[in-house]
Amino acid sequence: MLELKDVETFYGSIPVIKGICFSLPENTIVSVVGSNGAGKTTLLKTICGVLKPLRGKIEFLGEEIQGVSPEKIVRAGISMIAEGRELFSDMSVLENLELGGYLKTKTEVTKTLEKVFSLFPVLKSRLSQMAGTLSGGQQQMLTIAMALMVKPRLLLLDEPSLGLAPLIKREIFDEIVHLNKEEGINILLVEQNVNMALSISEYGYVLDMGRITMEGSRAFLLDNEVVRKTYLGQ
């Protein structure tokens, strides 16, 4: 579904993503894990068109998308949930959801809203509430729901567990699994919480200083001595 070939992204003259190669098959959850500053967010921004790679190719469903505008990439079927629960805090839950579906017709938005409410019933009970007054977990649900309004084939998630209580983290990760297994949405998950990320992923990549230093199945990475010592504190 998604393939990166020798992708390099710079901030000015500084390389942040360095020769990245990886693939994401259909019907999977794939994680990219690593410490803060490893380049994980830059990687997602490059895939979704916010940043332009200096070199390399990015293919989605067999079509090259590097250098394509973010709007066209969203239309192609990729939606990103940014780190930090970026919402329109002084707008209502409903207004945020409608903005999430800005590329769709009114009829499509209405149909998708019903689907979103079946996934996150708490949002339906808070339609008129300002997004900024929701709890952290509810805000994360709303950001995911906004991304679903365009009916993506591939969902990019940047640190969805950040700042959430343990029980809420588990709830969010359970919902991510549901989106993949029951709704057929492919997931590329970026996380510092390596154990949680790998626990729901079929395959993972370890990113360090802008380079992929290791890859493998969930079982391989969780059992790897370097991963256990560096990222799991074991």
Helix/strand layout:
Layout: E1 2-11, E2 14-24, E3 29-33, H1 40-47, E4 55-60, E5 63-64, H2 70-76, E6 78-81, H3 93-100, H4 106-119, H5 121-124, H6 136-148, E7 154-158, H7 166-181, E8 186-191, H8 194-199, E9 203-208, E10 211-217, H9 218-223, H10 225-230
Parallel strand pairs: 3-8, 3-9, 6-7, 7-8
Antiparallel strand pairs: 1-2, 1-4, 4-5, 9-10
Architecture overview:
The radius of gyration is 17 Å and the shape is globular. α3 packs parallel to α6. The strands form 2 sheets. It has a 6-stranded mixed beta sheet with strand order 6-7-8-3-9-10, with helices on both faces. It has a 4-stranded antiparallel beta sheet with strand order 2-1-4-5, covered by helices on one side. The chain folds into 2 domains: 155 residues, Rossmann fold; 63 residues, no CATH class. The chain starts with a strand and ends with a helix. The protein contains 10 helices and 10 strands. With 234 residues, it is of the alpha/beta class. The longest helix is centred in the last third of the chain and has 16 residues.
Q: What is the mean pLDDT?
A: 91
SSE ordering: EEEHEEHEHHHHEHEHEEHH
Shape: globular
Uncertain regions spanning at least 5 consecutive residues? none
What's the number of helices?
Answer: 10
Structural category: alpha/beta
CATH fold annotation of the largest domain: Rossmann fold
* CA-atom Rg in angstroms: 17 Å
The CATH class of the largest domain, by name, is Alpha Beta
- Summed up, the domain count is 2
- CATH hierarchy: architecture of the largest domain: 3-Layer(aba) Sandwich
Largest sheet properties? 6 strands, mixed
Main sheet: which strands, in order across? 6-7-8-3-9-10
Gap between N and C termini: 34 Å
Helix content: 25-40%
Would you count the extended β strands for me? 10
CATH superfamily assignment of the largest domain? P-loop containing nucleotide triphosphate hydrolases
Tell me the fraction of residues in β-strands, as a range.
25-35%
